[in-house]
Amino acid sequence: MNKINFLKPDKSNLNTFLYIGSFLFFISVLDVFLNSFFRLNLIGFLPNFLSFMMPLIIGFLGLYFIRIEYSGIKYLDLINKHINTNNFNAILSLLIIFVVIKSIPPILSWFVIDASFAGDSKDVCSGTGACWTYIKVWMRRFMYGMYPNAEQWRINLSFIALALLGSVGYFATDRFKKYLTLYYVIIYPFIAFLFIFFFISGGPVFFDFSYGIIAAILSIIVGFFIPTKFKFYYFLIVPFALYILLKYFFFFEEYIELGKLEGLNWVETGAWGGLSLTFIISFFCLIFCFPIGMAFALGRRSSFPLIRYISIGFIEFWRGVPLITVLFMSAVMFPMFLPADFFIDKLVRCIIAISLFEAAYVAEVIRGGLQALPRGQYEAAKSLGMGYWKMHIFVILPQALKLVIPGIANTFLALVKDTPLIFVVGLLEIVGMLNLAKTNPEWLGFAMEGYVFAAIIFWIICYAMSKYSYNLELKYKTDR
Amino acid sequence: MNFKLKDLGPQLITVIAVVLIFGFFTYNAQINMENRGIDFGYGFLSQESSFDVQFSLIEYDGSHSYFRAYLVGLLNTILVSVIGIIIATILGVIVGIARLSPNYLINKFAAYYVEFFRNIPLLLQIFFWYFAALRALPLPQDAEAIFGVFFLTIKGLYVPAFIWENFNIFFYSIVASIIAIIVIRFQAKKLQETQGKQIPVFLISIGLIFILPLLSFLVGGVSLSFEIPQLKQLAATSFVYDGGLSLPPELIALTLSLSLYTATFIAECVRAGIQGVGKGQKEAAASIGLTPNQVLKLVIMPQALRIIIPPTTNQYLNLTKNSSLAAAIAYPDLVLVFAGTALMQTGKAIEIVSITMFTYLSLSISISILMNWYNKRIAIQEK
């Protein structure tokens, strides 16, 4: 038998090194494992510091011995290649293994083993673990805010209906596929708005809407007779003009019987809250910020200097200030800018503020996509005789938007993560409700559970969104 | 310039619309302020503020002016941003490099860290650290000393204060050593370019930065002593630490969450930057005989930095803007002190919100100018 050089493990004494090394490595992991799961200390007889460092030293020696290149054993080579390339990596790997083993028992015991699930009062939460009873009791408040318990089916029904309507795209046959963009950009948001306005808000709020619907129908009917050349400007101006005309000059509330319908109980927006409010705000801001951002992205690349400078000013202003000051502005400064008798609801002001803020970010992302397109695309479209709008709608934007899907998804993620900031104006979505529940004298001391709960929910939402955007990116990836 | 009448239409419409909107707003604001008897003006800045701020870098109490309160808030914001940027950069670079590590465990660990922290709202993280994690710390009387001098308690972190004698001599010695290092680096570069000789610049620099200040201790009469925080009893159950420096828990929670959150984004920038350098560059550098360290320092990093810096600048800006979330946990930053307390007291909504926004705008713009300058300096000099 050859003389074994322990400082230089090599292939000729493979088995010896393998046995000694794996044994030492196993001992070190076992020691940490027993220590953390069963509170046993195998090497407790050593002095304090040495006993603390021992697993690391033993494990390091073990890994050092089994670091033999091209040993011919598949698993050993895999281990060496992935966690044991050199001394530094070996120590880091050991540290990570130890940290994971060490942190499993306390986390597990806090989350599950010592936690209390049953009951509906604080008394059951006496252990050292989490008090999930607290979450259970406050669940409705965390989900719906101060929305009355008896009316919560309205929120559920609206969300389910909207989710079903939103999934239409998956079931549409090829014949209807070409209308999907129109559906998602105009019809779906409108339906969603109706749901929120009538169903979740409730109350006899039919007036405005009846005017709006009449104006829309009238302008669409007349729209058929308008020459194509002016159609864009027509639909830009006439419906709004008609609406204002109807509202302030033609009809008075007495004339419309619809307005006298007894509605659902009215729930003021101040009572909305919890996770449902997070969804509502994210949804509307998402819908509004996209077209605004697109308009400003086009404006920033416009050939008209005045439009360009106004767009640059708008974008840079919103990008330079924090959202919290924007919300402050919407809360304290914005009412000063409106006529005295003109009141805009707090929630609406909030949605406008967040939409404008995020629109600036969306604009920059879309501008990146527009800039990435080769000049040839513009020139080809122009050479076909397309005008500005036709060129952008049919040639430029479809390609540019495809390019910036990840960026837009990131902006939307940021939007969802920014919604808790509305606490500034006094609206309480889920994080705000947690802070409220935390100060309830009957349920003091459960801040941790609440925040962990909200963190899990947000994490799932954001992670799902980022994965979805990744899939979308793959789906629309076209080679150019 | 070929001026076209056709182009004038859309621009005119836009400008008129913008002017009308602004005009409408200012008109209403004037009427509203007249109705409520508020006069517009920035004169209130010199009035006595008569409110207290619990943590300030400069001397401040209720008898100072609102402008002084504004400065206190601004300095606190800058303090949090600077600390946060430093920690986030260090952490982000480490995690970003770890994500490219061949070590499977390190790689996954870094990936989980990034996925975990960036998918949770920052506000929630701040609340978690402040209301849940830091509240679990011991009371001052129960706190155990870390290394015998630091005390981490529910009332904040207490660290020893430095008490200097002849501080300016020490300061000059540091300045002198930095100047010496710059001169030596310059000379070394020249020497390498003209004669191909290499001198160990790094070792010399480290030596200089230790030896010169050390000399100032031995010769210059500089001395340093520590004031270790001492436990002091105020009442039967109320204890505080006296002496030393105290960092309030708000500051700790805020910097911790800001840097943990922003580090994930910086890590992604760093990873993208290093991955963006072509493999051929590495192989070419290795093939001309550079050591791995030299490859990293002379070939990879200069190219990677060009990709890394612009998005990282954005993250710095975001961190600065996100520091305004301090208001949620009552850390006295610009938003809380000025747009919160001062606004409540004076009722001058338009003035105060506009000053606050303008301040953040100028902070953002100054960071981006600084980083643009740096970016331009390291960019490829194309001829």
Briefly characterize the structure:
Chain A is mainly alpha-helical and 480 residues long.
List keywords for this structure.
heterodimer, A: mainly alpha, MetI-like fold, B: 383 residues, alpha+beta, four-stranded antiparallel sheet, 11 helices, globular
Give the biggest beta sheet of chain A. none
CATH architecture of the largest domain in chain A: Orthogonal Bundle
CATH class descriptor of the domain at 46-128 and 248-378 in chain B: Mainly Alpha
Q: What's the shape of chain A? A: extended
Q: Are there runs of chain B of 5+ residues with pLDDT below 50, and where?
A: none
- Overall structural domain count of chain A: 3
Q: Output the number of helix runs of chain B.
A: 11
Outline type of chain B = globular
Q: Span from first to last CA of chain A?
A: 65 Å
The protein's oligomeric status is: heterodimer
**Rg from alpha-carbon coordinates of chain B:** 27 Å
Helix content of chain A: over 70%
Radius of gyration of chain A using CA atoms only: 31 Å
* SS content category of chain B: alpha+beta
Q: What helical percentage do the residues of chain B reach?
A: 55-70%
Give the structural class of chain A.
mainly alpha
